[in-house]
Amino acid sequence: MALMILPLIGSVSVSESLFVVTTLCVVYLVLKFFRTDIPVGLRRLPGPKALPFIGNLLGSSPYLSLTAMSKRYGDVFQIQIGMRPVVVLSGSETVRQALIKQGHEFSSRPDLYSFRMINDGKSLSFSSDHVGIWRARRKLAYSALRSFSTLEGTAPEYTCVLEEHICKEGEYLINQFNTVMKANGSFDPFRYIVVSVANVICGMCFGRRYDHNDEELLSFVNISDEFSKVAGSGYLADFIPILRFLPSTTMKKFLSINDRFNIFVQKIVSEHYATYNKDNIRDITDTLIDHCEDRKLDENSNVQMSDERIVRIVNDLFGAGFDTVSTALSWSVMYLVAYPEIQERLYQELKDKVGLDRTPCLSDKPRLPLLEAFILELFRHSSFMPFTIPHCELWKDPSSFYPDRFLTADGNDVNKIEGEKMMIFGMGKRRCIGEVIARNEVFLFLAILIQKLNFLTVPGEPLDMTPEYGLTMKHKRCHLRAKMRTRKEQ
Ligand code: HEM
Question: Which residues bind heme (predicted)?
Answer without folding.
Answer: 432
